[in-house]
Design a protein that fits this description.
Elements lengths: L2 E8 L5 E2 L15 E8 L39 H7 L8 E6 L5 H11 L5 E5 L4 H10 L8 E5 L3 H11 L3 E5 L16 H18 L3 E5 L12 H5 L2 E6 L6 E9 L7 E7 L2 E4 L3 H5 L10 E8 L2 E13 L7 E4 L3 H15 L6 E7 L11 H13 L7 E4 L1 E2 L5 E2 L4 H10 L4 E5 L14 E5 L2 H9 L1
Parallel strand pairs: 4-8, 4-9, 5-6, 5-7, 7-8, 13-17, 15-16, 17-20, 20-21
Antiparallel strand pairs: 1-2, 1-3, 9-10, 10-11, 11-12, 13-14, 14-16, 18-19
């Protein structure tokens, strides 16, 4: 008989303790320990290793110069946005975790991947939906006749590995990790110990068989992926599926990626037939408005390797409650307050008694400092009620003394603005070193101070 005992786990980091603690000694969080009944089995063999039909790798030490790295080893998916976020395709033996709000489209994205992978046998394992429900969704996606996609509704890892032996897939998708349970842990599905144990089994399976595994994870009310934080450390890639489910556009962002850049993002549009890739996000991030309106400026930013143009909207008005309000959507509020202080201290704009609201159109959240110049132009445009020409774009970081600092990869930013028909772009003069402006049709205005932009834009 296996020995059963009670153990306490931290819900934040997965730290294990024999007794309840008020403060976790690992992550310093308070009141995060929960009690779970854990069954320990000594010297057990992982269930997937008992599967005879799966080819296993034999581990042995190798000199680093003898290891052969092949770029063509990645599996290229038909989804270009997913390829970009993953760093060029699916790496064999990788473990990918994708999280997001309920109803945002995680299962739809994964089912589309399973149905569309060319020359790849996929096994889609669902612990939340029945086979009939998945069949209905596949028919809605107009891809239900895909012969290389197999559906399994199961939550026990032991049975899952047996089906992997039968199907012999090239790609495994788990929806979701919170529904799986292992017989080696006597705890409820979704608990800290079950999530950690099931993920560990899938991780060892992926690494020793070179079969990539995608895991769908739930998130908490704070937006973090549910379960111990160690879950994100165990996997190779963490993807966050963002957006408002009441709107059409979704953003797939790489939070962690061992095989590519962790700054890439992909943009999708949710339609009745599934998720559609948005190849040119600048077109959806720029609103279609008639005539010039005050408080709007266009910024050129970079998300990973992709340049795009976004619309910055500002609204400045007199405070009606004595204490002015400061609110931003998609932009760091602390950075907005810093830019407001620069405008008031360096250029004399009286904003301390006015409400300031800032919005990044399209629901995108940006961190590129190159948006600073467009932010202050939009704020002053709204305060002075002077519209900015819709043919002008801005790319520059603003310092505390009012100087415009250089930003990286300015050539790509200029080319993107020119491609979308903009006539003028304002950049830092420190970006002009080595820049050949003659090859661009767009007018490039190099400036060093914010007041130079004010004089040129507002006259």
């Amino acid at each position: 008989m296996a020995k059963t005992k009670t153990t306490y786990f931290c819900q934040s980091c997965g730290y294990e303790s024999a007794k309840w603690l008020g403060k976790c000694p690992s992550c310093n969080e308070w009141n995060t320990f929960v009690e779970e009944v854990v069954e320990r089995v000594s010297a057990r063999v992982p269930d997937w290793q008992t599967v005879s039909g799966v080819k296993k790798r034999t581990s042995k030490a190798a000199a680093i110069h003898e290891i052969v790295h092949a770029d063509e080893a990645r599996r290229i998916t038909p989804d270009k946005e997913l390829n970009r976020v993953l760093g060029g395709g699916i790496v064999p033996g990788s473990l990918v975790l994708i999280g997001g709000e309920p109803g945002i489209g995680k299962s739809t994205l994964m089912l589309q991947l399973a149905l569309n992978m060319p020359d790849t046998r996929t096994l889609y394992i669902s612990g939340e939906e029945s086979e009939q429900q998945l069949k209905m969704r596949a028919e809605r996606l107009s891809q239900a006749s895909k012969a290389d996609c197999f559906i399994l509704t199961e939550t026990a890892t032991q049975h899952i590995f047996k089906q992997i032996n039968t199907v012999a897939p090239h790609l495994v998708i788990i929806d979701s990790i919170q529904t799986l349970h292992s017989a080696h842990i006597d705890a409820a599905p979704g608990s800290v110990s079950q999530v950690r144990e099931c993920t560990a089994e899938l991780l060892q399976f992926a690494k020793e068989t070179a079969i990539p595994v995608f895991i769908v994870g739930h998130i908490t009310k704070d937006g973090a992926i549910a379960g111990p934080k160690v879950l994100e450390h165990m996997v190779d890639t963490v993807l966050q599926f963002e957006g408002d489910r009441h709107h059409a556009y979704r953003i797939l962002r790489a939070v962690k990626n061992r095989f590519g850049a962790a700054t890439e993002l992909g943009i999708y549009e949710m339609q009745g037939s599934g998720l559609r890739e948005v190849s040119n996000p600048s077109e959806i991030l720029l609103s279609q408005r008639e005539g010039n309106m005050s408080g709007i400026a266009i910024a050129v930013l970079l998300e990973g390797m992709r340049p795009m143009l976004i619309e910055v909207q500002a609204l400045v008005g007199n405070s009606a409650y004595g204490t002015p309000q400061r609110s931003s959507n998609g932009f760091d509020t602390k950075r907005m307050n810093m830019l407001l202080a620069v405008l008031e201290k360096r250029f004399g704009f009286r904003l301390s008694a006015q409400d300031v609201f800032l919005n990044i159109a399209g629901g995108l959240r940006v961190e590129d400092p190159a948006i600073d110049l467009a932010v202050i132009i939009a704020i002053i445009s709204s305060q002075q009620d002077i519209p900015v020409s819709a043919t002008i774009a801005f790319a520059g970081e603003v310092g505390l003394s009012g100087e415009i600092r250089a930003v990286n990869r300015i050539e790509q930013r200029i080319a993107e603005a020119e491609k979308l028909g903009f006539e003028t772009i304002y950049i830092s003069k420190y970006n002009t070193k080595g820049l050949d402006s003659s090859k661009y049709q767009i007018s490039i205005r190099a400036v060093a101070k914010v007041e130079e932009v004010f004089q040129a834009v507002f006259g």
